[in-house]
Amino acid sequence: MDGDALYSIGDLARRTGLTVKTIRFYSDAEIVPPTGRTPAGYRLYDIDAMSRLDLVRTLRDLGLDLAVIRQVLDREVSVPDVAAAHADALDVQIRTLRLRRAVLRAVARRGSTPEELDLVHRLAKLSDNERQEVVHDFIDDTFGGLDANPDFVALMRSAMPQLPDDPAPEQVEAWIELAELCQDADFRAAVRRMAEHQAGQRADGDTTGLHHELTESVRQEVGKALAAGIEPASADAAPILDSLTALYAETFARTDDTELRHWLVTRLVAGSDPRAEGYWQLLGAVNGWPVPPSLAPVFTWFIAALRTGGHPAPR
Q1: Which CATH architecture does the domain made up of 7-77 adopt?
Q2: Which of 1, 61, 149, 175 is 20 to 30 A from 288 in CA distance terms?
Q3: CA distances from 83 to 36, 89, 95, 176, 207 (A)
Q4: What are the residue ranges of CATH 1.10.1660.10 in the chain?
């Protein structure tokens, strides 16, 4: 191509694939000004104008607006700087689109009404900090002002919902259910009662922390009983019950007697609301954590055995 050659606007359109109208618009905006004009006043463009036009088309295809393109062409900003800034902006748009897609799929799964659609959308587009505020408000309302188990409260505050940049519809749906649960007045009242029970236990001298080992022992031993079809009121349940109450007696420095079993029933019932377990399962689903099997059947069996198992076996 001859570097001294001049091209009409029609030539430029044929060589670049752009319309005459588009080239004329860029020319009028002085983004790609003509190099000269014919005696009749028609615009002419040289090879540099054609290269400039190719760059404009590329930048427009990448989504840059004309103001930024003008800055690039005038060397006010560099192409790498513009590319980096635009890539960052696209990241935000992509995250937004992914979230919208997940919300729409969650709405389709839930069969939401128009009113629920608005709620789902508003809850889903909250930032991580805003989502955590929903949970912190729930914890403040249910545990605030009480000397409840500090290890348990710390655990709740450390486990916050964090939707990924590209959430699955199931994660969005789990977050919506978790947010609704945290704002449910009846559930808040139930958790407040549990917190008051913890505070009462601490006032009576129980300053022990979390008891993961005890929970795991109950899960294993009662799990075997459930698998074997052992009824909680049967004679076969007695040795299982005795072994577990002995563990509780040792942990809490109490005597393994009828009073301990009454105390255990009260303690376990206070924390047995299935919605409390649902809270942790929903939180795990939001964060993509492995969701363990429900402990509800295990503790239902244990409580029933405590209520019907009678006195501990002689030692």
Answers
A1: Orthogonal Bundle (1.10)
A2: 149
A3: 32, 10, 18, 36, 58
A4: 7-77
Determine the Cα–Cα distance for residues 182 and 137; give it in Å rounded to an integer.
8
* 3-class SS letters over the chain: CCCCCCEEHHHHHHHHCCCHHHHHHHHHCCCCCCCEECCCCCEEECHHHHHHHHHHHHHHHCCCCHHHHHHHHCCCCCHHHHHHHHHHHHHHHHHHHHHHHHHHHHHHHHCCCHHHHHHHHHHHCCCHHHHHHHHHHHHHHHHCCCCCCHHHHHHHHHCCCCCCCCCCHHHHHHHHHHHHHHCCHHHHHHHHHHHHHHHHHHHCCCCCCCCHHHHHHHHHHHHHHHHCCCCCCCCCHHHHHHHHHHHHHHHHCCCCCHHHHHHHHHHHHHCCCHHHHHHHHHHHHHHCCCCCCCCHHHHHHHHHHHHHCCCCCCC
Q: What is the 3-state secondary structure of 76-125?
A: CCCHHHHHHHHHHHHHHHHHHHHHHHHHHHHHHHHCCCHHHHHHHHHHHC
Say what the pTM is: 0.64
Q: How confident is the model at residue 25 (pLDDT cuts 50, 70, 90)?
A: very high
Angle between helices 47-61 and 20-28 (to 10 degrees): 100
pLDDT digits (tens, 9 = 90+) for 227-286: 999 999 999 999 999 999 999 999 888 999 999 999 999 888 888 888 999 999 999 999
The two structure tokens encoding residue 4:
């001294």
Query: What number of residues does the chain have?
Result: 315
With contact defined as beta carbons under 8 Å apart, do 272 and 299 qualify?
yes
Q: pLDDT, tens digit, for every residue of 213-241?
A: 888 999 999 999 999 999 999 999 999 99
Q: How far is CA 65 from CA 69, 79, 123, 182, 207, in A?
A: 6, 14, 32, 43, 63
